[in-house]
Amino acid sequence: MVNEERLVQEFVDLVQISSPTRQERKVADYLKARLGELGLSVEEDNAGEKIGTDTGNLIGRLPGEGPALMFCAHMDTVEPGVGIVPVVKEGIITSAGETVLGGDDKAGICAILETLEVIKENKLFHPNLVIVFTVAEEGGLKGAKALDIPKLGAELGFCLDAGGPVGTIVSRGPAQNQLKAVIRGRAAHAGLCPEEGISAIQVAAEAIMRTQLGRIDQETTANIGVISGGKATNIIPDRVELEGEARSLDIEKLDKQTKHMTETLERVCRERGAQAEIEVAQAYPQINLDPESRVVELAVEAARQLGIVPEVTQTGGGSDANIFNGKGLPTANLGIGMEKVHSTEEFIRVKDMVDVTRLLLQIIKLAQG
């Protein structure tokens, strides 16, 4: 029942509406109208006010009978994402090559819209549906964090924002801690009296070298991704700022890695006569769904009934699904077939877009019982 031509045209139209993170107003207005056309009540929450933009999350509701299911995708895209020119050729959609395609996550949005189209035109029975299109996902899951999740009234959720083939069901994802540190040394003239100074850059470099980073184990990773400081080559730098992260599927391992990173910074600073000011904050909680949970079982059985091989798996990345799970809404992240995301080589197959739409329709059918 999926209308492939309509689905592809919706996608082509949608990716041409630029929506970089924090600039989602135009695409939000477009989607408000589309959801209204499909018979949903639509509201925009106050996430924009909370995160300092003019666009909030969109919440659409289609009343039905049975449990309330949430389907979610995000409206923003990464850079370069302005002026996207989609190219459809031999069943594959790419950009013209100067920008990303924006399939992350507009392919997810279009699968949801086509699902609603099929329900409407075929007058299909369905459970209560809650559609959520978030803002600023690529900027740190900020839209989902600002969302009043209990108010949604959903019992189970599905995000359409995972890589991998259709049939991929992400049931585990890491929690992430963000680390920010300021290392303070002592300034001095680099040519006249360098021995009077304490180089914050040198202290930072030594601390980084003594910190375990990269792949810690199969569940844990860590990184220092930003370092900035110094004023001139003839001044011993007295201040350096570091930004890093640790993430793990195991909370105890995450705590251990975070402690290792902070203690190493503090220890090296003490040894070198510098000072460290360190802040640690949780970026997002983990996803840890039981393989036998209802939300996972629904996705697995729906895939099997369509002849799609399901793969329940884990990821090393974060998504809106982390936030939903952290706030008590069991949410699986579904693979939608997007490839080489966050690059100008991004592409998606038309067949995958059709199949993920079929998967949503089958999930709805099974959920209603």
List the helices and strands and how they pair.
Elements: H1 4-15, H2 25-37, E1 41-44, H3 47-51, E2 58-62, E3 68-74, E4 86-89, E5 92-95, H4 103-122, E6 128-134, H5 142-146, H6 149-152, E7 156-162, E8 168-173, E9 175-184, H7 200-209, E10 214-217, E11 220-229, E12 239-248, H8 251-272, E13 275-284, E14 287-288, H9 294-305, E15 311-314, H10 320-326, E16 331-335, E17 347-349, H11 350-368
Parallel strand pairs: 3-6, 3-7, 7-16, 8-15
Antiparallel strand pairs: 1-2, 2-6, 4-5, 5-17, 8-14, 8-16, 9-12, 9-13, 10-11, 11-12
Helix pairs in contact: 1-4, 4-11, 7-8, 9-11
Care to describe what's here?
- By secondary structure, the chain is an alpha+beta fold.
- Helix content is 35%, strand content 28%.
- The chain has eleven helices and 17 strands.
- It has helices spanning 4-15, 25-37, 47-51, 103-122, 142-146, 149-152, 200-209, 251-272, 294-305, 320-326, 350-368, and strands at 41-44, 58-62, 68-74, 86-89, 92-95, 128-134, 156-162, 168-173, 175-184, 214-217, 220-229, 239-248, 275-284, 287-288, 311-314, 331-335, 347-349.
- Strands 1, 2, 3, 6, 7, 8, 14, 15 and 16 form a nine-stranded mixed beta sheet that branches.
- The longest helix has 22 residues, at 251-272.
- The two termini are 20 Å apart.
Distance from first to last alpha carbon: 20 Å
- How many H/I helical runs? 11
Q: Strand tally, please?
A: 17
Assign an overall shape.
Answer: elongated
Residue-averaged pLDDT: 97
Evaluate the radius of gyration: 23 Å
The residue ranges in which pLDDT falls below 50 over 5 or more consecutive positions are none
Strand content: 25-35%
Describe the largest sheet: 9 strands, mixed
**Element pattern in H and E:** HHEHEEEEHEHHEEEHEEEHEEHEHEEH
In percent, how helical is the residue content? 25-40%
Instruction: Report the structural category.
Output: alpha+beta
